[in-house]
Structures
1.
Amino acid sequence: MRVSTKTDKQNKKLSAFVRKNTVGWLMLLPTVLFAYLIVWRPTVMGFYNSLFRMQGGTRGAFIGLKNYVEIITDTNFLKVLTNTFKYTGYSLLIGFIPPLLIAILLNEARRGQYIFRVGMYIPVVLPGIAVYMLWSYMYLPGDAGLLNTIFGLFGADPYVWLQDSRFAIVWIVVTMTWSAMGGTILMYFAALQGINPDLYEAASIDGAMIRHKLRYIVLPEIYPIALLLFVRQIIGVFQVMEQPLTMTGGGPDGATESLALLAYKYAFEYFKFDKGMATGVITFIILMFMTIFYTRLEKKVNQ
Amino acid sequence: MKRKLLKEKKAAVKVSTRLIGDNDMKRPVYKLIYLLIVLFLIGMCMVTILPTMWIFASAFKDTKEFLAVPPTIIPRSFEPAKIVQVWKNVKFIRYLRNSGIIIAGDLAFTVLFNGMAGYVFSKLKPAGSKFIYRLIFITMLLPTSMNMIPLYSSFVKFPILGINITGSFIPLWLMSGFSAFNIMLFKSFFDSVPASIVEAARIDGSTEVGIFLRIIIPLSKPIVMVVSIFTIVAAWGNFMWPFLILKKETMQPVSVMLYNMKSQLSVDKYMVVMMLSVIPPLTVFLCFSRQIMGGVTLGGVKE
Amino acid sequence: MSKTRRITSIITAAVLVSISVLLCSCSKGGKVSVTIGDWPADTDTMSSVYEEYLKQMNEKYPDIEIIPDTSSGTATSYLTRAISGQLPNLYVVSYTEAANIIKSGFCADITDACKEYNYAQSLNPLVLDKVKDGDKIYGIPQTAYALGLICNKELFEQAGLVNADGTLQYPQTYDELAKTAKTIKEKTNQAGVVFPTMNNQGGWIFTNVAWSYGVDFMEQDTDGKWKATFDTPECVAALQYIKDLKWVHNVLPDNAFVDIEEERKLFASNQAAMYIIHPTERMLVKNYSMNKDNICFARVPEGPAGRYTLMGGNYYAVSPQSTPEQIDALFKFLEIKGHSPNVTEKTEESLSMSMKKDNDENVPVMRKAAFPLWINNERTALDTKLREMYANVPDENFADYSSFIDVMVHEEEPQCAQELYSILDSGIQKVLTEKDADCASIVKEMANDFQKNHLDKLD
């Protein structure tokens, strides 16, 4: 008697275990398949195919690292690589700190917070192409450009904006920041709102100055999210492509060409899928190093 | 009267997460600082809203005024007939329909598959799913630059089946079947659904898929809503993939049309197309801004 | 609960529909069906004419099914379509792409059909050569033209650049072009001339200027290797000329990101007076509602080394997947459309239809063909006759271009032409955006880039 109940229980447990696992895995199957199809397989295929000479879409002869050698020895590669880092650098300068500052200031507002948030989020919902085209028009050089007209009211001379090869990347980054900042601001804002009010109260009682509150309450609280956004921004901006493609075509004189745009051009303008993939792999490797660096950093912070 | 009191009480709670406390506000220096902050925030909102408004202003100008140098910032002419004409000329309704089809499929795939995965990770947790969850988290940090070209070729020759699915909406839908970000959003929301509800349904004899569809989804309206709105806005703006996949004009969505029309329409008419393409996402946003704000917060904190 | 069920059923339906769409796309009927690209979109007035072709086709060959494909045909989009196997059976591309397309196997060998239907014998060999690789024919020329200088009559008149007999004072040399542009800029405050800088179009046009300045871009060594040979004072002078247009004469538009479409927009809205282009500028009228009588055409200007122009245009290519039956069906369609060397009453009727439409729609129809496409007398005579009937622009607007005096047609550069254009684009952008740019070092750099990045890497 006693023994049988035990096996009964075991059976029940087993069936629950099986149910939980088979059903669970069955329901997870589509996701795993999609992840395989959309992320993992292409990632591996990209590596693999970049070692071959591709004729259109089909694999030809194995050529080892020749694609890589050809890409890296291209006289413009270094420039494109530098540009890509410039995009990232400028975007951190223009697009990383300001949203944080704005969020902190937004948090100070005693009235109309909601309206401000809605207003600042508007560009995020506009279709990307519309944003790039809009800014291309605003950046038009000479008297025809909107920005020149506006700054002209204050007596400024017309400026060439995207045609200034020294700063064209900056203007593209401004556009990117304009269209994405709303989301970042809201994330910081949420983090700020989530801070325990007691901390402020305690600080006030201690007679803390604003900069002390900022230093000892606000910054530690938003540090984790800031770090995450930092990495996501690097990864995102390092792969910038649509913006230069639609706004400058990579010009003037390749001043705004990025690695991802180079990959796109290799593949979809010059039929060279193999080189396109190899360029993608190069981007990938650089970013992997950055990601590993980030996870190390995160661990350190968590400890 | 009571409501007002409640409001005040709420405000009182909020005050304490600010750097400038209530007591500080009594001093004129802080009053000045606060004024500057508000002015700054208003300025930021102008920066985000005015360019968007400019699209509308320009769309209504007549051709002559549009080409005027320097451009007028506040339009003098008003030509609504042009909008009707452009609407008909570019067959906007067709692109609208295509965008609609893409969005509908994207929504179905996103909610069904990402939601299901979130449910499995949150409630079923079959053996080994933690590992998959980790893998999915990593994909968020993976650069997509490398995937694009191989993924494109796998749509040209679909793995195993060997058929070409470019030229149809399917690749776009498939791609929305997997989004690490959405899976995480779903999971973290489902985590807050009490396990007892799921248990009760199991005892009633519901299947897991049934529980997910009939109990979890209806209970999770807020998150379904948020993910749906994000999906709609993203699908509306998605340009690169429809551009690469859909080469038949009759199947292209608004975003691709927007890109193509740049080289087929005169500038003033192009502005009209731009305005038309901006209206739907703006409407969705303004109608559902509360949910979106909440959603961003959700995404930000739980990441 | 019913609401949930509804959601469930909607989702299930969506998934089912997607699967069935997937399956449907594989099925096929018994007829020979061919997809014809470059079909005018239903928003294009020309579409009614094509509808008529379609009707005639269905009557005459009931077992051929024609599937119109209206996708717009930029080069890039054809490449992606080729790679994804989405090419229509018949598609249209420019000669510039021919070498790439043939090399990549994106088109079918149609030599046999061309011989059978008389195309091989009747097409102008100068043009046909562009779509040949050895003895094999890979395409059927659709249009052919020599580049010329398009001029905006209204702006010329405003600037007073009109002769006593009413003709415009076309610039004859590149120096005159700069001078004319300057006059226009001073008198009308609009850009005197536009030069493209993007999408390889800058390089494409620049080669014409460079040839006229005496530049040879490349040559083949005795051992078969290609060498870039344009790091010369001539090329520096040609680039300096472009640079001076901006910084000395200041006759270019402010925007330095210019492609052909931008040129057209500026020109059609009277914001620019001249650019170098082919004479089949339908878009000016069709997309940008320009008055056709406002368009004048001259020969390209002369440089120190002569008056060189590139011959260009579009041709029909056939997708590599096409079966012999499909290829045959395509030729039958071309016959119906009238794009055929064989003259019948039908040919005349079909051609009239499309020319009449152009005439009705105020798209410029010139009395003289830009470049003779056919060499069999019968077909040439028909062309002349129809042009006589439907020409709708004043002859004097195109007289200078049509005279072809001194004009020398230059072959497109033989190796990596697109890559060369891309490099030239960059150089042009540089001199147009940097006032202090040094042309000599830019040319040196361009030649070096072209050699190292492209010629040295030829397989």
2.
Amino acid sequence: MEQGRFPLPSEIADVPGAENWRSMYAYFTRFTPEDDKRFWFYNSMHFPEPMPAFDTVTAEIPYSAIGANTARLFVFPTTLGIEHRIVNGRVYITANPVTDPAEIGRRAEIFGERAGHYYENWDSLYEGWKGRMAELIRQIEAVTVPELPEFEDASVVMESRGVAQNHYVRENFQRCITLFSKMWHHHTEMLMLGYGAYVVFFQFCKQAFPEISDQTVARMVAGIDVIMYRPDDELRRLARAAVDNGVDDLFTQGCVAAEVLTALRDRGEGGARWLEEFAAARDPWFLISTGDGFYHHHLSWEDDLTVPFTALPRYVAQVREGTLRDRPTGELQAERERIADGYRSLLGSDEERAAFGQMLGLCRRVFPFVEDHKFYCEHWFTTRFFQKIRAFGALLARSGVLAEADDVFQLHHTEVDQALADVMLAWAAGSPPLGGAHFQPVVAERKRMLKVLRDWSPPPALGPVPEALNDPAVHMLWGVTQQTIESWLSPPESGVVRGIGASSGVVEGTARVLTDVNQIGEIADGEILVCPVTAPSWAPVFGKIKAAVSDIGGSMSHAAIVAREYGMPAVVGTGDATKRITTGQRVRVDGDRGTVEVLE
Amino acid sequence: MTRFVCSFGGASERDAEPPGRATDTGSGADGPGIADADRAADLGGKGASLARLARAGLPVPPGYVVTTAAFAEAMTAVDPSGALRASVEALPPGDVRAIARAAVRFRARITAAPLPGGVASVIAASYRDLGGGPGAAVAVRSSATMEDSAAASFAGLQDTYLGVYGADAVLDAVRRCWASLYNDESVAYRRRLGMGEHDLAMAVVVQRMVHPRAAGVIFTRSPVTGDRSVVAIEGTWGLGSALVAGDVTPDSFTVSKVTGEITGRRVAGKLRMHAPGGVCPMPAHLQHAPCLSDGEIRALARLACRVEDHYGAPQDIEWALLGDDVTGIQDSPCAPCAPESPNTSSAPAGTKAPADASAPADASAPADAPAPAADRIVLLQSRPETVWAAREPAPVASPKPRACDHVLALFGKTP
């Protein structure tokens, strides 16, 4: 990259060996010559890896919902929606600002009325939201994948239902996609306004206290009794249950989930009681994704029990020692109030104190939604969604269209539709589907290309640098500021990885780089965890490590909040820590400045 | 005793009493309740500040102030009729040579004239009361009565003597401080401003001399952004005068007053150091080492908040941290660049320090098992912050009819 400018989209060359990447993605995600005139940046926060074809649905649908929310539903005055493009497998985005003052004024009037309605009735609207989301989850869980038997069940005829199973192949698959879309509309329904309240409070704090850290602002707002802590709480409960039922000897360091579960079945009443507790905890609390719900391979605890069974032995040991503590919610609550009162009292006038109280109050009103929606949407619903898609993949594999179920994620959702049509036709005609010859080479080529694309270092941004980036709504949507862009334009320092200081403190230690959550068992006590994304499901290992560093995330990310509670330094959103640091290196993590120094 | 001296910081009863108690030994010093302005008129800015810190129970090295009354008494002895001062007042501001001639004559009179008996005996007695034996080292520093910024450069012309030993040497250093009012530059300054010579006043601080491990300045309001929620600490190894003189880029640390977290940390390459013997190269192993541990940073921040609370307004504070000598330098290595080693200096003169922010402190910390950080800090001065106080920004926001109106206002704003 030349100093002072980013490459234009048209200047990005295809990655050798993956020239055919365009075949994976919809035409409307490709850069056009016109796009050279606009500023784009790589959304590494949500899409840190090259996109498998199916997973582009997690860009297409959210951007369809977010834009609708800001541009059409609430009519945010200064911004329309977000556009996204894919190049070499990576998702770039840009926001469409509104700059004409007359237009902004016209929109502001509508925005005031609509946003005001939501803010004023937030609590009851959120209750209603939870009901709608629970219903959507119920619906996605109820979706079935037709069996396609040799003969239809007699009832279809005798009850004159008249519709054969192959019809439901497509209907039910499409139902998954449309439910996913509805989920995202509800996801954004309140989220943009929730963020908006936070942005206002954040800006106020930064103006009144120019040196306040992002994390301290977050601490005044963060909820204490947050649903995202529940999965970890459940593990503590299960650890106690193991001791209470006399089966704690099975939970040893390095134990394997399947073996432990088998052994428990031979442990009489105690084992049975623990398994009962386990079953109760799993649904829904194990439906927590090891990622953020944007990739099919970020499995949930339910799909892969490695994470919970890595954490359980340590919790069990703590129960035996009598050192297992529940989250000290009372203390955390008092601490949150103490910090807020501290800043309030430092303000210069009663007028400012009153404004501070209003903004903080609004933030705290909207924050239960901001924090809890993730569990409903990205974790619970999305885990079920990917499970259903995988089940359709299994159907395609059984029919010989795909080699294995997971290959379904190498097809765009419109291609899955085609493949299912093939299966529907073949079942009806009584002949084998033709898709095997068509899709299996396509899948093989795409898997190979994704491997090649993984090594490409995407430029952080493309196109002309915007003159000024000072619109709060655009900040909120983009998650980048003028400063971010400037840091992208300056050459990287050797030996220093920069990110967001998400939790205060400085420590040195040995790095453990994990690219896959399933390696979680490799972490030794006192190491510094370096990983692509510290999703909530990683929380159980936080008690073991000295500091956390991630490629992705912000100071309000769950990992940041948990790190602060553990009083452990964390640097998030580094972009490429997992590439620049290797396991075994000594590093110094500075959670205040947001830097990770490689010491050797 | 007399109205010529005011002790602070425990003085001779230091071992028996907790540090930080001001002991008034004469009518020139007053108890709590006397306005600071009045105290500054008697004790000078620095002296009043030290006495007040000590009275508030804050740690200052023990010492005493030779009051402006003592100065007035001495001036009466030097110039009983006032004729000498009247002749200075008559000098034309532009006549540099005449000013220089008058100044040198005046200085000679002050340093040569025996002190009035009452003044001399009380200064010597207070020195003995400080303890530490007949050869105990003290710092002698002028304490000007005009501390506003306009007079800062004028005040800066005055002297500081470090490592002064023995009662006679102290008396001599006090006279030299007084005489510094008659430096050529000081006299010229007063003539330019047309200031009267008869109203001149100066107090002198005599304080137990010690060797800090590290020293510097604390701002209880960010000097960079004016943020009231942080304490900014600057420091270096050795004496704090290195900072004030600009001889070193200090380490700087920022601590949140609210959370106590250290939110900023910049360890500078510190190439030079001020030791009691003078300026010398920083030992290599200290150049890039932070001069404070995290515990020390937090203890300093807590203490600074106590000072700010006591004054009820943001403060600029000079501090020193006592402890083991990590520099290995106090005995000899910097001799070549030292103007005069305190160990060899004898009466009448001490070592002249580069500026008055030098750090006399108590070097009595045990060699092994250092005391907790909070017990090793001493304060050398506290002044009200003036820069940001003078440009208080407009309120960031005002309350609105509904809380959500703040959001509507921000997002509906025309760029």
